[in-house]
Amino acid sequence: MRRNLTLIALAGLAVCGSALGQECDLTIEGNDQIQFVQSELTVSSSCTEVTLTLVHVGQLAANIMGHNWVLTTTADWQAVAQAGQASGPPDYVPEGDERVIAATGMIGGGEEISITFDISGLEPGGNYTYFCSFPGHFVLMNGTFIIE
Ligand code: CO
Q1: Could you tell me the distance, in angstroms and rounded to a whole number, from the CA of residue 138 to the centre of ligand 1?
Q2: 106 C-alpha vs ligand 1 centroid, how far in Å?
Q3: Residue 137 falls inside a structural domain
Q4: Residue 6, domain member (yes or no)
Q5: Ligand 1 centre distance from Cα of residue 69 (Å)
Q6: Does residue 128 fall inside a structural domain?
Q7: Within 13 Å, how many C-alpha atoms sit on residue 82's CB side?
């Protein structure tokens, strides 16, 4: 019940946010079924910075059902995901890898984490993909990041 109320509150914030012109804030949810609820995210090219909040709406711990949000170009994402597996816990993101445009820390059920990053160097209409780098999750947890 509490979780439902939280989701309603978040949805309310999102509606208010766009009404106020804050389309530079994005929210994405991950669950215990190894899914991102949103399979694509769209942001305006008028945004210089984007603040993304990842909400883990599941209940499993970060070492079992960890989720993060990693952004790369679509050309790079699978190679970076593979490199992330090899780089190990807790983040499974290759350290200092310039192909990583943005990456949050790894969280478990009931947690959320935000990251603010600069998109001024990215191409509107370009091909960008986000994924969770927890071992095995990138296969199911990936989506398209659109700058329009
Ligand atoms: Co995950």
Answers
A1: 7
A2: 8
A3: yes
A4: no
A5: 8
A6: yes
A7: 3
